[in-house]
Amino acid sequence: MNILFTGLMGIASTLMLEREDGTLHRARAIPHGAIGYFLGKLISQALLCLVTFTVVLALSMILFDGFALHRANSLLTLSWVLPLGIVAMLPIGVVLGSALRHPRQLSFVSLLLMCLTAVSGVFYPLSLQSPMLQLIGQAFPLYWLGLGVRGAMLPDAFAADELGESWRLLETAGVLSLWAVVGSALAVYVLRKSSRRAVGSRMKESSP
After folding, report:
1. Is 208 within the bounds of a domain?
2. Torsions phi, psi for 71 (to 5 deg)
3. Does residue 90 lie in a domain region?
4. How many domains does the chain have?
5. What is the rounded distance in angstroms from the CA atom of residue 134 to the CA atom of residue 146?
6. Model confidence at 5: pLDDT above 90
7. Using an 8 Å Cβ cutoff, are 60 and 67 in contact?
8. Helix extents (H) in the chain
9. Is 73 within a domain?
């Protein structure tokens, strides 16, 4: 949830503001233009998500029992699932921030993301939902990110509640990698389009 709303929605709202105040337009002057701007935003927001996650995890390990991070492969799994999941999620925020025309539209997007959370196995097992909702949930990276984090942090007995009664780490790596590659390419393309549109709007405003 932190990655979804702090990361994804955070980068979307920031991008909308920087498009309006001309920052996105000036980003065309930096090396590699939209790609450089995208990588800078991705890295800074990813670091913020990782730091926040680490703080919450440390407090949770003190306050609650049941985490399985003592296993040899737990931290190893978490070390690749979390960064890969963040890279898979954040480009969606970039696309939303580039495509939306008005900040008020973010409230509607937040509602859609809450609906997506409900069918992504974040609060209760996806196996308890209808086959159609299971397909919808598995089509988005949020489900796979949650599945990978649960696979790293929870005892193996909890896998019985998941689809296929396993953590499906290989499928998690594949789906998140696909979303990261396709999402990043789409984000750079949409950023370039948004930057050109911002330039065109400013030229119209400055013309007599």
Report:
1. no
2. -70, 155
3. yes
4. 1
5. 14
6. no
7. yes
8. 10-20, 23-26, 33-63, 74-99, 105-118, 131-138, 141-153, 169-206
9. yes
Task: List the one residue out of 59, 67, 78, 77 whose CA is nearest residue 155.
Answer: 67
Burial class for 204, CB neighbours closer than 10 Å (0-12, 13-18, 19+): exposed
Structural domain contains residue 82? yes
Work out the widest C-alpha separation in the chain, in whole angstroms: 70
Q: What percent of the chain has pLDDT over 70?
A: 91
186-199 per-position pLDDT tens digit? 999 988 887 776 54
| Mean pLDDT of the chain, nearest integer | 85
Q: What per-residue confidence (pLDDT) applies to 202?
A: 47
Q: What is the pLDDT of residues 70-124, one digit of tens each?
A: 677 888 999 999 999 999 999 999 998 888 877 778 888 888 888 889 899 988 8
Nearest to 196 by CA among 17, 66, 34, 21: 34
Per the structure, the complete domain to which residue 48 belongs is given by 2-203
Dig out the tokens for 33 from the structure: 């233009």
Question: Could you tell me how many residues make up the chain?
Answer: 208
Round to whole Å and give the CA distance between 84 and 137: 18
Task: Name, in order, each residue with C-beta under 8 angstroms of 202's C-beta and a sequence gap of 6 or more.
Answer: 22, 25
